[in-house]
Design a protein that fits this description.
heterodimer; A: alpha+beta; N-terminal domain of TfIIb; 20% helix; B: Rossmann fold; Ubiquitin-like (UB roll); 3 domains; four-stranded parallel β-sheet; 11 strands
Chain lengths: 486, 441
């Protein structure tokens, strides 16, 4: 422990910390663009200048906080007259060649430069010279577009690809005020499965998501805490969707229940501050065509009728089996277990297999199993073996299929099928009873990830009126076996 | 004559740079003696006692730099000769590389012995051609003769020297930018701390010295620190190679003993200003030093203390002479164009500030200047003072602030009248053909 003073407050800093780290840990604010807690210290934005107070022997001096090691008894001023003047100067320089096109910039509203400008400068540019022009729309990859005029060359994105994703996919070309961030020519950035993190890292609106480009102003959106179901890592994410107060009535009502974007929610126990690109594309998972109609024998019926028919089948079954979803939440699994755990022969099914070309596993986040809650499910039941027939009891006359990824041809012939699923698959017509259920974004719950860490997800949207929550369905379907007269 | 000569003390002939000639002058005898009779710390002590100041521009005592290296700390140390001589107006190291390459190699071997270095580097400016061929040839010759490689002069000491050609970037002459470039990356300078003597090349303790500084080591060790201190002044012992250019009768490289009168050097040794014009001003140590007017240099002597007291610096010894009748606005335009072109673009004040300076001066020259532009130039320069990663931002600021402080009237004239007070001239009117051209179109 080292004792220092920041703005007159006594701070116990840890050995080896920088002034920036000590100040943040003790709640003192120092502005920064290029510094990031998870990346190396380049010290290039120069906005984090603080004043080291001198003593009788020496005058005070200004230096950058991010690269200043703490020394015992040092006195730091983060808001002195000189510091404020320097910050104003630096912001004048940062915005000198920045186009200030906030009106058409996706980052407006969550832009560090915008915030700092209003907090620390607030004055128009003193320059009367033309700004340096650069590419406004440089396609960096399939997913990311770069506006070089907005770029303030903090090098966070470059350092991310070198230090975190290790793709070495980005670099800086040229020098001086004509420097340009560019992807390396071997396509490493295109293949980087973590590339979208640079969009969040960018302190200005230079790196932008192409799917999200000009789709929404961020102040109309709100984040809901959720969990990426893309693999057994179960990264904490924020699902951004339209605020209730800003519900669209005329323009495009579908936008009200749309996932606008997904960003990482920092969780040191699971994913740190990052997620992979698959997690950004949760809309591709959740916004597939939904199965919203209950069916009996392939004919659409009311949900209540379908539930009634399913209860009859379950009650009549003598040797029932069940395939349990590896996408069910801990709460749903508990409800399932309470309803069927003792009577049914249960096995955990693989709902999702890796997509062709998808990265299976790496050292950063991605795990091989592409289902979020297999760990909790397999704590209750064994996994479905590779030869599924052997898993079913002899004379099996009913299979309850929960979730996607079921091979209906592998089910015991002649067995009745009750199928619960959220999305539209041809298989829904094959089941004797099909019951539509809600998806993760329409309910809350918990997943247990591969390491046993339990995280919670919240509901973002209302579920369609004609679908049921699996948790409630299980309770409704829990009927005892009909005792027949001997 | 400009006092005692320590480096330029032999006759330059067609073969004087060769190993045979160097041996005939007593070359490599000092290295042999050091390896036989001296311990590494004794060499460092000798250099520290001699008090030689760095000749790259900052005048940091070489002995103090060496003293930071801890011997026997069980990690590799590196030594690097900074031959990336890119400061405009400076071409003194080129003379050493072309004419005394073996003196540099011998000095580096002695320094490497003192610092327990196994691999040393010479980072040479990419534009240098003859200098590169000469030093490359000399390194090859030294290997062949056993002055480099394993078991030098029958001792256990081994040293490899790698000659590395830069790609012609100004900031790669800054020590940390140089090392980053030497590592094969983009020549971005690094933040201090850590100092390069703690974590330098490949994150190992590294001593990086200017070519001229290193070249003096052989003489210091051979003749002793006391003999070295006899030359020059008390605070600036030794000599300085000064490369003088601009509007001067006899431009070139001169070895000047510290303490030699400034004005006399220009007037007598260099033959005065071109075409017997009056002297307007001098940039004493490369373009990054504050300009000194003719009146200001009159009482000065050529040493760090004296020039420093006048508010400038002897810098890298690249003296630029400016004759009467030269337009200082155009002069500044040339300087800021250079800084704009050479800013590496890493940190904000320099990346944005250099281009801004350039655009404002360009605008003044095209006749669109506004009265507050002059103060803006000064403010941008001040915003670069001490806020940048390396010294380039400060350097550009010193040059700009110096010229504006002393020749503000020329800027005001151009802004007011839309034209130069001196016809926008950069050539010295006194030069024969310039006068011809001016008279007859």
């Amino acid at each position: 422990m080292v004792e220092i003073w920041i703005d007159g407050d006594r701070v116990e800093a840890e050995d080896g910390q920088s002034v920036m780290q000590a100040a943040r840990a003790s709640g003192h604010e120092i502005p920064y663009f290029c510094w990031h807690p998870a990346l190396s210290v380049p010290g290039n934005c120069r906005i984090c200048m603080v004043e080291v107070e001198g003593d009788d022997a020496s005058a005070g001096w200004l230096d950058i906080a991010c690269n200043m090691p703490i020394a015992k008894g040092m006195h730091i001023r983060t808001d002195s007259e000189r510091v404020r003047a320097r910050r104003k100067e630096m912001l004048q320089l940062v915005t000198l060649n920045h186009p200030v096109d906030c009106g058409i910039c996706d980052k407006a509203g969550e832009c560090t430069l915008q915030d700092y400008h209003y907090r620390y400068n607030g004055e128009p540019s003193v320059s009367r010279d033309a700004k340096v022009r650069a590419t406004k729309h440089h396609v960096l990859s399939e997913r990311i577009v770069l506006d070089n005029e907005r770029c303030i060359l903090c090098s966070r994105c470059v350092r991310f690809t070198r230090e975190i994703s290790k793709s070495h996919g980005l670099g800086i070309q040229h020098r001086g005020d004509h420097s340009l961030v560019r992807a390396v020519e071997n396509g490493a950035f295109e293949r980087d499965p973590y590339s979208d993190n640079v969009i969040d890292l960018c302190p200005v609106g230079a790196l932008l998501s192409r799917p999200f480009l000009h789709k929404a102003r961020v102040w109309y959106l709100e984040p809901t805490a959720s969990i990426c179901p893309g693999c057994e890592r179960g990264c904490s994410v924020d699902i951004w969707h339209r605020k209730k107060a800003w519900t669209l009535k005329r323009l495009d009502p579908a936008a009200n229940a749309r996932i606008d974007r997904v960003t990482p929610r920092e969780n040191p126990a699971v994913n740190g501050p990052w997620i992979c690109n698959k997690g950004r594309d949760l809309a591709l998972v959740f916004e597939r065509p939904r199965a919203t109609a209950a069916m009996v024998g392939g004919e659409a019926v009311e949900l209540e009728a379908a539930v009634e028919r399913a209860r009859e089948l379950i009650a009549a079954a003598r040797h029932p089996a069940a395939l349990v979803s590896s996408w069910g939440s801990n709460e749903e699994l508990a409800a399932f277990h309470a309803a069927f755990g003792t009577r049914f022969a249960c096995h955990v099914k693989t709902d999702h297999l890796p997509e062709p070309g998808e990265r299976l596993e790496d050292e950063l986040l991605i795990k091989p199993d592409k289902n979020p809650n297999r760990r909790a499910a397999t704590a209750l039941y064994p996994s479905l073996p590779d030869a599924p027939r052997a898993a079913f009891p002899a004379g099996c006359d009913l299979v309850l299929v929960w979730g996607e990824g079921c091979d209906f041809d592998a089910l015991p012939p002649g067995a009745k099928v009750v199928h619960l699923d959220a999305w539209r698959h041809p298989a829904e017509f094959r089941a004797d009873v099909f019951l539509p259920i809600s998806v993760q974004t329409e309910r809350s719950g918990h997943y247990t990830n591969f390491a046993g860490v339990v995280s919670r997800f919240e509901a973002c949207f209302e579920k369609p009126a004609t679908v049921a929550d699996a948790e409630a369905l299980f309770a409704a379907l829990a009927v005892p076996a009909r005792v027949e007269a001997p | 004559m400009t006092g005692t000569k320590l480096l330029m003390n032999f006759e330059v002939t067609a073969t004087s740079h060769r190993l045979a000639d160097y041996r005939a002058r007593g070359g490599y005898a000092t290295l042999e003696k050091v390896l036989r009779d001296m311990r590494p710390e004794e060499v460092t002590k000798e250099v520290a006692t001699a008090g030689i100041l760095g000749h790259g521009g900052a005048a940091f005592p070489a002995g103090r730099k060496w003293g930071v290296i801890r011997l026997n700390d069980e990690q590799p140390h590196y030594l690097c000769a900074n031959a990336d001589e890119g400061e405009p107006g400076t071409f003194k190291d080129r003379w050493i590389l072309e004419h005394a390459p073996h003196l540099l190699i011998e000095s580096m071997a002695i320094a490497a012995y003192a610092l327990q270095v196994r691999h040393a580097f010479i980072y040479i400016r990419g534009e240098f051609d003859l200098a590169w061929r000469r030093i490359a040839e000399a390194v090859e010759g030294a290997y062949a003769a056993g002055w480099l490689g394993e078991g030098i002069a029958g001792s256990a000491f081994a040293l490899d020297i790698v000659v590395y050609r830069g790609a012609g970037s100004y900031v790669c002459g800054e020590a940390s930018g140089l090392l980053t470039s030497l590592e094969g990356r983009k020549g971005y300078p690094r933040n201090r701390p850590p100092r390069l003597t703690v974590r330098g090349l490949y994150q190992m303790p590294t001593v990086i010295n200017n070519v001229e500084t290193l070249t003096n080591i052989t003489g210091i060790v051979r003749d002793g620190a006391a003999a070295f201190r006899q030359v020059g002044t008390a605070k600036s012992p030794g000599t300085q190679l000064i490369s003088i250019s601009g509007h001067v009768q006899r431009p070139g490289v001169y070895e000047v003993e510290y303490g030699y009168p400034f004005a006399k050097f220009i007037r007598e040794d260099c033959g005065g200003v071109l075409g017997s014009l009056g002297l307007k001003c001098v940039l004493p140590g490369g373009i990054s030093t504050t300009v000194l007017t003719a009146a200001e240099i009159e009482p000065l002597v050529l040493d760090h203390a004296s020039v420093g007291a006048a508010g400038s610096s002897l810098g890298s010894g690249g003296m630029v002479v400016v004759a009467e009748g030269t337009c200082m606005v155009r002069f500044l335009q040339v300087l800021v164009r250079f800084y704009h072109h050479e800013s590496c673009g890493q940190c904000t004040p320099c990346r944005e500030g250099m281009g801004w300076l350039h655009r404002i001066v360009d605008r003044i020259v095209t006749g669109d200047g506004q009265p507050d532009d002059i103060d803006r130039l000064v403010a941008i320069s001040k915003a670069n003072d001490g806020t940048t990663i390396c010294g380039m931002g400060d350097a550009a600021g010193y040059a700009t602030v110096g010229i504006i402080a002393k020749y503000r009237d020329e800027f005001e004239y151009w802004i007011r009248n839309g034209r130069s007070k001196y016809g926008g001239r950069l050539e010295a009117l006194g030069h024969e053909w310039v006068r011809e051209a001016a008279l007859h179109g």
